[in-house]
Design goal:
By secondary structure, the chain is of the alpha/beta class. The protein is 51% helix and 13% strand. The protein contains 7 helices and 5 strands, in the order βααβααβααβαβ. The radius of gyration is 15 Å and the shape is globular.
Amino acid sequence: MNGYLLDTDVLSQLIKSKQNLLVIRRLSALSKTQQFTSSVSMTEIFFGAYHSPQPIAYFKAIRERIIPNIQILLFDLKAAQTYGALRSRLERRGRPLSQADMMIAAIALANDMVLATGNIRHFGRIPELKVEDWFS
């Protein structure tokens, strides 16, 4: 599978009132068939909605701007095996990531996708992960 796995920080640009124009331009340049996110990023997006001072508007934006336009990949068995190997390797090196970030990376690796993010510092610890900084 090819395409881009949109990290939470990229995905959140679709629902913010003040959007990063560079991220929006990059998204616009991709066909919908190349745009994916993970079930893990969606958990973070939903947490943001529940935590928001304006949850109704936040949920409306999720329903209208994200769900119909982006394919959501689940944390499946292949991603689980990839996660186990990745976590083990990073912990042995003393450089683990948060569980959510490791799960997102595992989904990208398991599906041979480029991870679109602004969090290069963390995801850069995974040499085999194809990562693009969409914020600079």
